[in-house]
Amino acid sequence: MIPVAFDYKKASSVEDALAALAEGGEDAKLMGGGQSLVPVLRLRLNAPSVVVDCSSIPELKGIKDEGGKIVIGAGTTHHAVMNDPAVKSSLKVLADATASVADPQIRHRGTLGGALAHSDPRADQPPVALALDAEFTIAGATGQRCVAAADFFQGPFETAVGPDEILVSIAFPKLDGWGGHYEKFNRAAQAWSIIGVAAAVRMEGGKIAEARIGLTNVGGTPHRASAVEQALVGASSIAEVEAASMYASDNLSPFADEDADVDYRLHLARVLTARSVAKAAGIS
Amino acid sequence: MQHIKVTVDGTTYQKEVEPRTLLVHFLREDLGRVGTVVGCDTSNCGACTVLVDGVSLKSCSMLAVQADGSEITTIQGVSDGNDWHPVQSAFKECHGLQCGYCTPGMVISSIDLLNENPNPTEAEIREGLEGNLCRCTGYHNIVKSVQRAAELMEGAKS
Question: Which value does ipTM take for this structure?
């Protein structure tokens, strides 16, 4: 289909985009790579009066290694994130999850910040950001503010980014020496995750010393499996990993849909958590 | 209307477009380059894949205004005018198509895949073409075509 007509403003800087948002009012919509927004416009699920295109703002692009953390510009494409040497070595779980997003064409154009700000409950990178305690830098009329991942995801397609604000960058604490894995279960090529589990694990003497676990598509927002993280400490066998992963379905309220009913999703949450952790830890 | 300047298959065009015009509609309806087809209109099938500044994109999922200043290669621009692109030759040789509707996108995605990974494994080919659907389900020969294209391109280098 053809989208409803809108005005188009190509922003050249964050300030420029903020001004365009302020001018456009409530019906203005930011566009990153457009890989979620263009389909939404095409299906006429949304009809903004003005689209503010952020895809050419230089300050939103790029990946910086800042010592203890890696700071990724919100407008950095999935393709750039998954192929970045620093991301691959210090944030393997993010590289894995990003490589599983959609397909190559969409990863060429879609952006990390766009996907996180869109906050689709089925998306692959929000559970990584949540599990890794990423920090989100958001720009608004009064300057920049920093939001923790735990406060960022507020509901399906809802985040801490206000209608007159822009997500500028996401900082991930480096996990050097940690194992990482993203275990995704879906029915067909390029389909959304029915369940996805992000796991990062630090081993010490053959045992799990620390773990970070995030799940996607188990509710309206990504889920941090804190009980599993605690239960995993000291685990060294697959049986111990599987036992700890039984907590993965605690406090979950997943949706039922054509892919899976609630019980099946809870089952997948437990099974895939164990698989993801085992792969991240190198335990078989 | 917005003024854009794009180079498509070696020819530069300056046009006025509505912001809501999708790149694929611009290519087909404004420029008459109908080699690029609309398959699903839902960002799934990849039949509309083109190269924008050298990388594969779904032209149904990009606005024409966003292509301002870009260099675009469609299926109609991959041959040099005399000889086919090795990927085209390989698709013919290995019969990498049945009805042919997905072929423009398959060829473009295969070119992009081989640019990034000149010697892919079968699994890498299948993953690399994840964004392209063949509703005849003729994937087997498509994979063989990409393997053959890799050989042809390797041979052309030596």
Answer: 0.96
